[in-house]
Amino acid sequence: MASNYAPDGATQLEIYKRIALLKANDERSRKVIMTGRLIMPYYSYRGQECIPAAFATALNDDDYLVTIYRGIHDMLAKGMPLKDLWAEIAGRVDGTCKGKGGPMHLTYPAKGIMVTTGIVGSSMPIANGLAWGSQLSKNGRVAVATFGDGASNIGAFHEAINLAAVWKLPVIFICQNNLYGEHTKYEKTTSAERIADRAKAYNIPGVRVNGNDPIEVYAAMREAVERARAGEGPTLLECMTFRFYGHVFGDADAYMDKGEKAAAMANDPVPIFRARLIADGIATEEQLAAIEAEVESQIDEAVEFALASPFPGLEELTKDVYAEGVA
Ligand SMILES: Cc1ncc(C[n+]2csc(CCOP(=O)(O)OP(=O)(O)O)c2C)c(N)n1
Ligand SMILES: [Mg+2]
């Protein structure tokens, strides 16, 4: 890994702040669903926090993000405000889409969060469109598409990478390889040993990193961003990771190897990075504990705000759906 892109101490601490927020937010989401205060489909990202915490720290606020149903970690890392997020997942008027998008269709253009999609593989062509717009208007904004390992077997993955390579679009394709697509293990569906190798077929860089090591993710991302902004085209970044809580909330995990899951959880990347920050003298135990307490109280506030917010009225049903004032 190119060491000139390694994050300094302040950047590592910034990455940890985001990791702490993502972890606490996932834990709270599962708790709120369990207590029955909120009913929603929920795709836990617990275990995958280091990836967006690191890649988003290497981006500007106005760079674009297109993410998927398992993407709340991506959006929070990119800067979606907690209150707007919680109000949206609770279906309330104060949400990012006035409560009409729900947990799988969040957007927040003020931080470049343009689309969340449940259609596997569709984040990539959409990111291409945004990147093409950047290229045409020379605004310097890069576009990031995140997706899973399963999505790399969809036609849109191949079509999007090919076009981005030919047009040298400022786009970064980030595959969060958690080794499962729904309830099927990677090897049963995917011919390639490494998804990053698929980049060779399209003549672009394909980089595989340990997605549980935010320092590796950050360094690879910096290089990809620099390349994109310099007009050199796309990068495929494969981040190896594991989802701790199955495909969707309530998943009984019967299809999973219990040992594999236990081993992944025993190597939880969050406490490992936390301990490393202390060992490297980047932060003290007290500083990190204060960060964690702060995110908990921000989440407390956001949940209460969201649950006190009203549901959209019936008059909202067709608003923002059909063009208005057009003959
Ligand atoms: C086009 C399409 N085909 C199938 C599905 C059903 N589906 C939803 S999630 C999923 C698995 C995707 O796995 P992966 O890309 O690895 O992402 P992960 O959920 O592991 O983050 C599938 C097949 C879908 N939503 N869209
Ligand atoms: Mg997957």
Helix amount, in percent?
Answer: 40-55%
Largest sheet: 6 strands, parallel
Compute the gyration radius: what is it?
19 Å
Side by side, the strands of the main sheet go 2-1-3-4-8-7
Number of strands: 8
Could you say which small molecules are bound to this protein? thiamine diphosphate, magnesium ion
Which overall shape is indicated by the principal axes computed on the Cα atoms? globular
Secondary-structure content class: alpha/beta
* Model regions low in confidence, pLDDT < 50 over at least 5 residues: none
Report the sheet-strand fraction. Answer: 5-15%
In sequence order, what are the helices and strands, one letter per element? HHEHHEHEHEEEHEHEHHH
Q: With helices defined by DSSP (H or I, 4 residues minimum), what is the helix count?
A: 11
Average pLDDT score: 96
Straight-line N-to-C gap: 57 Å
Structure description:
With 327 residues, this protein is α/β, with parallel strands linked by helices. It has helices spanning 9-34, 50-57, 72-78, 82-89, 123-137, 155-167, 186-189, 214-229, 258-266, 269-279, 285-308, and strands spanning 64-68, 113-117, 143-148, 171-177, 180-181, 184-185, 206-210, 235-240. The strands form 2 sheets. The chain has a 6-stranded parallel beta sheet, with helices on both faces. α6 (155-167) links the parallel β3 (143-148) and β4. The longest helix is centred in the N-terminal third of the chain and has 26 residues, at 9-34. The termini are far apart. It binds thiamine diphosphate and magnesium ion. Residues 70, 118-121, 147-151, 178, 180-182, 247 line the site of thiamine diphosphate.
